[in-house]
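Quick start: read one record
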Amino acid sequence: MMNNLILLRHGQSQWNLENRFTGWHDVDLTDNGEAEAKKAGSLIKKITLDRVYTSTLKRARRTALMALTEAESKGSNVSKIKNNGNWGFIESDALRERDYGDLVGLNKEETAKKYGSNQVHLWRRGYEVKPPGGESLADVVQRVRPYFENEIWPNVISGENILVAAHGNSLRAVLVIIGEYEPEDIPNIELPTGKPLVFDVMNGVKKRKYYLE
């Protein structure tokens, strides 16, 4: 019996649009980000979800909310997620975006001019390099791993359809944890906003992955 793990990066946020380091700052979605979330919902409408996990940041929570609301409007069976009219999302700080520390709020282009493009590239993409006062991607993997392995993955291998609505770096961490990419490769993997990445799983084993379009 085939089931699915779906990874969904939140829709475009206001600071995505402004090219700022966002991290844990709780910015909202843009109009385009809301549209991306709704489109994601229409794409996953045929998958009957058993659980939905999100980070505690509003751009991820609202993406999940808008996606599931849209899926429901298109006829999706959301009975396992919605109880008495309320969405039963499971939220966790473990799924938050990478903390960019002192870089939060800074424009990426202006920061590259100030510190040099090579240094900013290392802060953004170096697996073990921490920006000042922030987390490395390796730190994010360490933060996400216990929660994913103890809370999310057991439900996947038991045969449930799971949606994880989170962030670029926390989802990169998931991809490392499930063995999809090696740590040295994952910094260069781009996850588009609002586009569901689906893993087909059979008897607890990943079979294939693909984006819904």
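Helices lie at 14-17, 31-43, 58-73, 108-115, 117-125, 137-157, 168-177.
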